[in-house]
Inverse folding.
């Protein structure tokens, strides 16, 4: 699975949410997420838990650069009924790999075509915007980058606010 991502600092949450709602044609979905990152040699690995007891293991890799960037990822989903399996997996990964850290956030999700717009409030960090252009198998990276840049401009996100890396990286610098 592949997507093109852009992440940026947000200075005015109300303004960017209003623009995102206009672009999506409707209100956001609010999602609370609690991510545990594990220590790995390549890419990133996290177990994301949701309030309904469901979870998803996410392995991803992307370059840590500003602007649009390709992200390759794999998902392993656990329903709320499989919560015990997710807990067992978490225990095994903690024992084998160790914990790198934890990211807790409230995400406002807006959908615009094939793009997910996330307006995130990250505990201890503040407010951010993330675009994820989910690429179709036949789509080029350049096509995804063009979609991301167009939405970045429509949302009024400035290049100087673009971020490199993940929230986990920012938290480690605190």
């Amino acid at each position: 699975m592949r997507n093109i991502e852009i992440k940026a600092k947000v200075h005015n949450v109300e303004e960017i949410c209003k623009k995102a709602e206009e672009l999506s044609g409707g209100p956001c979905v609010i999602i609370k997420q609690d991510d545990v990152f594990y220590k790995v040699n390549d890419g990133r690995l996290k177990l994301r838990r949701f309030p309904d007891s469901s979870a998803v293991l996410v392995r991803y890799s992307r370059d840590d650069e500003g602007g649009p960037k390709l992200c390759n990822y794999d998902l392993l989903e656990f329903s709320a009924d499989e919560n015990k399996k997710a807990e067992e997996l978490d225990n095994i990964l903690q024992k084998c790999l160790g914990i790198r850290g934890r990211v807790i956030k409230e995400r406002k999700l807006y959908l615009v075509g094939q793009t997910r717009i996330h307006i995130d409030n990250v505990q201890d960090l503040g407010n951010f915007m993330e675009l994820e252009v989910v690429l179709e198998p036949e789509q080029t990276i350049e096509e995804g980058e063009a979609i991301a840049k167009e939405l970045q401009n429509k949302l009024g996100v400035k290049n100087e606010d673009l971020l490199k890396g993940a929230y986990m990286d920012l938290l480690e610098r605190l």
Remarks:
- Residues 39 and 98 are 6 Å apart (CA to CA).
